[in-house]
C-alpha cells in the first residue's frame, strides 16, 4: 500500500511539473507575441547584385534634399544603390524605362553606370515642397 501511495505521489509531482513546464512555454509564447507587437521589420527593397568586380567596397549613405522644381542633370553612378524617398516626390528619367515618379515611402534601385538619358535631366522634384531621398550606395573603395 505504501508503494501505491508513493507511486501516486510521484505521478502527481510529475503532472504538476509538466503543468508548470507547459504553462511556462505558453507564457513564453505570449511574451514573444507581445514583443513582436512592439516592433515590425519590413523589407522595402531587395536587389540581386550578382557578381561584383573584385576589390574593396565602401557603403555610403547620403541624404539628397531638393527644393521644389530642383533638377539633377544626367550622371554616372560608380556603384549600385537603393533609394528611399522620405518626403515629397521625385521624377526619374531612365534610359530604358521612360520616366517614373516615386513618392514618399517608395523605394527604387539604380545600378552602376549610366542609367539616365544624357539629353534629359536625370531627376526632378515634382512635389510642391522639399523632397528628401535617402541614397545608399555600394561603391568601390578609392
For the structure shown, list the relevant keywords.
142 residues, globular, four-stranded antiparallel beta sheet, 2 domains, Jelly Rolls, 25% helix, 39% strand, alpha+beta, single chain
Structure, described:
The chain is an alpha+beta fold. It folds into two domains: 41 residues; 84 residues, Jelly Rolls (Sandwich). It has a four-stranded antiparallel sheet, with no helix packed on it. Strands 2-9-5-6 form a four-stranded antiparallel sheet, with no helix packed on it. Strand 5 and strand 6 form a beta hairpin. The chain is globular. About 13% of the residues have low confidence.
Widest sheet: strand order? 1-10-4-7
Molecular shape: globular
Could you state the order of secondary-structure elements as H and E?
A: HEEEEEEEEEE
What's the CATH H-level homologous superfamily of the largest domain?
A: Jelly Rolls
Radius of gyration using CA atoms only: 28 Å
Termini gap = 86 Å
Main β sheet profile: 4 strands, antiparallel
Helix content: 10-25%
Amino acid at each position: 500500500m505504501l508503494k501505491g501511495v508513493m507511486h501516486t505521489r510521484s505521478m502527481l509531482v510529475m503532472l504538476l511539473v509538466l503543468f508548470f513546464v507547459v504553462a511556462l512555454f505558453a507564457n513564453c509564447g505570449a511574451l514573444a507575441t507581445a514583443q513582436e507587437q512592439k516592433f515590425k521589420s519590413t523589407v522595402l527593397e531587395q536587389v540581386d547584385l550578382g557578381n561584383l568586380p573584385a576589390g574593396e567596397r565602401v557603403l555610403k549613405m547620403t541624404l539628397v534634399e531638393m527644393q521644389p522644381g530642383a533638377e539633377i542633370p544626367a550622371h554616372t553612378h560608380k556603384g549600385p544603390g537603393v533609394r528611399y524617398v522620405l518626403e515629397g516626390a521625385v521624377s526619374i528619367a531612365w534610359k530604358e524605362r521612360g520616366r517614373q515618379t516615386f513618392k514618399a515611402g517608395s523605394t527604387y534601385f539604380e545600378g552602376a553606370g549610366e542609367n539616365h538619358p544624357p539629353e534629359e535631366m536625370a531627376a526632378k522634384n515634382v512635389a510642391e515642397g522639399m523632397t528628401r531621398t535617402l541614397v545608399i550606395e555600394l561603391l568601390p573603395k578609392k
